[in-house]
Amino acid sequence: MTEPLLRELSRPGRPTLAIGRPDVPATALDIPEALLRDNLPLPEVGELEVVRHFTRLSQLNFSIDTTFYPLGSCTMKYNPKVNDAMAALPGMRNIHPLQPEASVQGALQLIHELQDLLAKITGFDGVSLTPAAGAHGELAGMLMIRAAHEANGDGERRRRVIIPDSAHGTNPATAAMAGYQVSSVRSDARGNVDLAALRKLLDDDVAGLMITVPSTLGLFDEAMLEVSQLIHEAGGLVYGDGANLNALLGIVRPRELGLDLMHSNLHKTFTTPHGGGGPGASAICATEALVPFLPLPVAARRFDGSFYLDEDRPQSIGRLGSFQGHFGMLVRAYTYIRMVGADGLHEVSEAAVLNANYLRQRLSEAFNVAYDRACMHEVVLSGLRGNQVRTIDVAKRLLDYGVHPPTIYFPLVVPEALMIEPTETETKATLDAFVDAMLAIAEEAERDPELARSAPHTTPIGRLDETAAARNPVLHW
Questions:
Q1: Does residue 452 share a domain with residue 308?
Q2: 25: domain range?
Q3: CA–CA distance from 351 to each of 72, 115, 268, 437, 446 (Å)?
Q4: pLDDT tens-digit readout, 143-163
Q5: What strands lie across the sheet with 379-384, from one edge to the other?
Q6: How far is CA 466 from the centre of its chain?
Q7: Cross-strand partners of 283
Q8: Cα torsion for 421, 424, 425, 431, to the nearest 10°?
Q9: Most buried pick, 211, 290, 295, 312, via CB within 10 A?
Q10: Helices 428-447 and 327-363: crossing angle, nearest 10°?
């Protein structure tokens, strides 16, 4: 704000005007004269020019609707339009959470049936749909673990949570928010939890383990059952981060891996892309012993067949929000699960795993593969083979090929990481086009490395100084 404007704002008795409100005295709105726009020279353009202008702006964005979007660890998949159609039905769109129970029986039935479907898919005994996002589901799980230990009388003693270095980045933050100290356990040479290192961390102060299944390395832990057993023998509980559930659907129920509770990202595994921070929704699933601690409310059914939101759960961790989660997202997840069915869910995971392993094989000659064994829903590369062009250069050059870059420099345990998740919905033709772009960049890196180092070249804005941008952000323009 300029000095003349600051002086004008602070000047006693400055004149003000009421814009568009001739019935309201100017002093009632108290708009400084210096802030008023007088005779603003707006351009005289027709509707068609305006539409074309904003349409062109929108087309500058990379999105799942226009291009391949292999953002690793976040399932950026196609959102079937039938999902939106169902969520937009008047009976879904126009209801209010404070309506009388009798007037929203259909919505309550949908929530109840979705809880049951997710329980069957995951193998758990109870589900709450109130978390608003994946990290929100994590927090619910950690609060439930704390409540369970407190109910057993050892809440004060069990104050530490073990988290593998291959876990999602939100896991340590979530555990700390729930009041726990965090101990990190390293991965072994094959990308599994290092069992020897885990044993050294076990003591009677351990509340539990947070483990991402499959991990952010794109791997299924080969010793998962033994990991769970070790935690249980130490008196802890095993929490599963289920954000990558699309690799397991119809193949294994997470409960069978020894997990005590788990969240699932409905907005990722069950069809709705969540780029830009939303929308989101999460289910928190629990074994019978932990069901009493689920967050409120939980949809239930009476003997007469009617549905209601059960809040009479004295051991519950309570509410996580004002109402029953993100209902529109629940409609989308329910629609997807019912539409594809059990066989379809199994096919989802088979395709996700097949696509990721196809990329692993095709790219392994030009790029280092972090762990050269069968991966799950995503493959993690470790930079170009024998070349000084860095991962960020590859990512920027991909923009010139019309592809959104994958996640880079995560997981942190992989140097020069490229985390690529093709998802189950991409065709072989799309994957081949992506491979061709990656191999072309690898060839360019040998022939003309500066081409990648100075990329992108075709976007409206070129290479940014990202370090300076992070330290000195420009928050207005």
A1: no
A2: 3-35
A3: 16, 25, 15, 22, 33
A4: 999 999 999 999 999 999 999
A5: 367-369, 379-384, 417-420, 407-408
A6: 23
A7: 264
A8: 60
A9: 211
A10: 50
Q: Are residues 132 and 243 in the same domain?
A: yes
pLDDT tens, position by position, 161-208: 999 999 988 999 999 999 999 999 999 999 999 999 999 999 999 999
Contacts of 105 (CB under 8 A, 6+ apart): 306, 307
pLDDT at residue number 466? 82
Say if residues 380 and 414 touch (Cβ distance below 8 Å).
yes
Residues 158 and 30 in one domain: no
Residues 22 and 106 in one domain: no
Give the pLDDT band of residue 401 (cuts 50, 70, 90).
Answer: very high
213-240, pLDDT tens digit by residue?
Answer: 999 999 999 999 999 999 999 999 999 9
**375 plus 295 within the same structural domain:** no
Q: 114 and 184, same structural domain?
A: yes
Confidence at 27, pLDDT banded by 50, 70, 90: low
Task: Please state, in angstroms and as integers, the Cα–Cα distance from residue 268 to each residue in 280, 281, 477, following that order.
Answer: 8, 9, 34
Residue 222 CB coordination number (10 Å): 14
Let me know whether 353 and 334 are in one domain. no
The pLDDT of 426-430, averaged and rounded, is 95
Number of domains forming the structure of the chain:
3
Record the pTM: 0.87
Asked if residue 49 belongs to a domain, the reply is no
Distance CA 284, CA 207 (A): 18
DSSP 135-158: HHHHHHHHHHHHHHHHHTT-TTT-
Residue whose token pair is 């009479």: 312
